[in-house]
Amino acid sequence: MERAKMAEAESLESAAEHERILREIESTDTACIGPTLRSVYDGEEHGRFMEKLETRIRNHDREIEKMCNFHYQGFVDSITELLKVRGEAQKLKNQVTDTNRKLQQEGKELVIAMEELKQCRLQQRNISATVDKLMLCLPVLEMYSKLRDQMKTKRHYPALKTLEHLEHTYLPQVSHYRFCKVMVDNIPKLREEIKDVSMSDLKDFLESIRKHSDKIGETAMKQAQQQRNLDNIVLQQPRIGSKRKSKKDAYTIFDTEMESTSPKSEQDSGILDVEDEEDDEEVPGAQDLVDFSPVYRCLHIYSVLGARETFENYYRKQRRKQARLVLQPPSNMHETLDGYRKYFNQIVGFFVVEDHILHTTQGLVNRAYIDELWEMALSKTIAALRTHSSYCSDPNLVLDLKNLIVLFADTLQVYGFPVNQLFDMLLEIRDQYSETLLKKWAGIFRNILDSDNYSPIPVTSEDMYKKVVGQFPFQDTELEKQSFPKKFPFSEFVPKVYNEIKEFIYACLKFSEDLHLSSTEVDDMIRKSTNLLLTRTLSNCLQNVIKRKNIGLTELVQIIINTTHLEKSCKYLEEFITNITNVLPETVHTTKLYGTTTFKDARHAAEEEIYTNLNQKIDQFLQLADYDWMTGDLDNKASDYLIDLIAFLRSTFAVFTHLPGKVAQTACMSACKHLATSLMQLLLEAEVRQLTLGALQQFNLDVRECEQFARSGPVPGFQEDTLQLAFIDLRQLLDLFIQWDWSTYLADYGQPNCKYLRVNPVTALTLLEKISREMKDTSRKNNMFAQFRKNERDKQKLIDTVAKQLRGLISSHHS
To answer: What is the largest CA-CA distance in the chain?
Structure first.
């Protein structure tokens, strides 16, 4: 039962499905009926569907037949009318054919024209397409042409920019063309070419900079000199604004500031030509002489190409090499100032360029690199200056060198370089300068001393008197009251030496200028140098003059007078130094002048030389002494040589009137002592083995003449018989022998108040033996064949006894 119900239900569903498919076939377009039919064949009711389809076809045929039967009369009428129309249609066809023939005949030219028009339109379309393509390619070609032009004119940085635009903007739009591929292949080559050419320009720039560094440095130093002159003018006026040109001002000298991002100049020359300008025209700025565009271009090109580090390393390496070349001084640099100037100009030019590169590029050089180069330059420069300046013996050249070094330091200081070591080195050169000054002034002093006449300066008019007083600080009321002509006590070398000392002080002061020293330091430097001048240079010159073989007593006396006045002038030299340095002598660390000591030493040396000279003169007169020690005759007058000697001494001591009293007294006493000693030596010399009492009497006359000279007071200031004491040894010895007062001598010997206190037993024995020999020799000649006479024998016995006692005194004294 259930199965019958299920079969029935399935039959109903299948019928409904077939109905749906049939409706779908009826309503669907024939092209889309395939899926519908597929659903039928996919099912299992294919036969039943075909039955349904046949039934439906038959139903439609019946409906069509009914419709045809209903409209049959109308169809017949329509056919009849259609047959009628056929004839008219034939006529119309004939007319149309005829019209078409005529139209064909008439339109043949139009067709030809249309064909031509078609071809023209095609060509126009092709031309338009070609123009469009060319318009797309033309910018590429123009850019490439521009690139080649830029390469040809060496505008490499713009060429690189053009190459970038060409590669990234234009070529991608026309990349399918063959010429574009050629361009793309050439782009790396062009980049390398630009890179190589820009590097070549940089090398040319570096070489040009190396050759023209001295010109750049010269210009920079001229600017610094102008600024210093301007500062000096400003210092003399009320200060308005800053004294020193700032570093920023050093860079405003450019006519147009170059940007660090892209170069504006397309010239490849490293140095611009600048004509030599007149001195009164404005000096061009140091950087105005330099075209830095090759550096900027090369830097930008390498930056764009991603090789900036390579460029920086190359640039720094090359500049280091150039620095070493610049810092190598020429071997003959010390010979002229131009040698030093060129050396400094090259160094300044090098660092002016580097400093400008530092401030106008971003990282090509940095402060550490500049500082490293400067430290190297500073050490090498100072070493070179120490070496070459040591060869210099001309103080003017040393002074010019110092001024040049100061200008060199000031110039570099404007650009921010530390220069303290240069000023420290100048203090070393200052010592050398002092040495060269001392050598120069040694020659000046020698010339002055050699050319002096060592005579008081005569003046015949008030003008001459004022001229001398203006040259040397001298005041003497008595001399002023005297009428003309009159004489200064000193000779010409006094004012000359005094003025030369002042000139030396001025020369020392010149070196201290612009060294940034305090007044105390300048004062100390001048005083120390002046002390060396006085204690070493002038002292040596005076000593050499004093020690000359041919110098006379008159010259020595005048030297003593001169040094006395120079010694008095030292206080004026102190005041002179104080006035020019504005440092009071009471300052704690102020060095005192040692001129007083110098002139005292020179005066003492002259005094000693006077004493020595006098003694030599006395010795020369004594060499003329011709005593006949065996004579028995007495002339009753002093020897001629001694009379001449006394006359010489009188005239000499008369010249000593201007000398200090102590000097004259010492000279006189020294001369008398030397004369007494020399006479004693004449009497006791070993060559004289015998002498007579007569010769001793003659010798006594000479001694009396000397004593008379001593009593006459050749030099004032001696107390009573002080000068005679020089001859006391001779006097007591001669009195002992002439008076033959041996008993008194032997009895009182050793007593403090004995009459012959100054007679030495050895001296007495020596002289007694000479007399004894003479007496024995005379007796032997007169009594060759006879015995001695009684009185002669007694006298000889007495002599022998005295001699024996004298020997006893001598031996007891030694024991």
So the answer is: 241
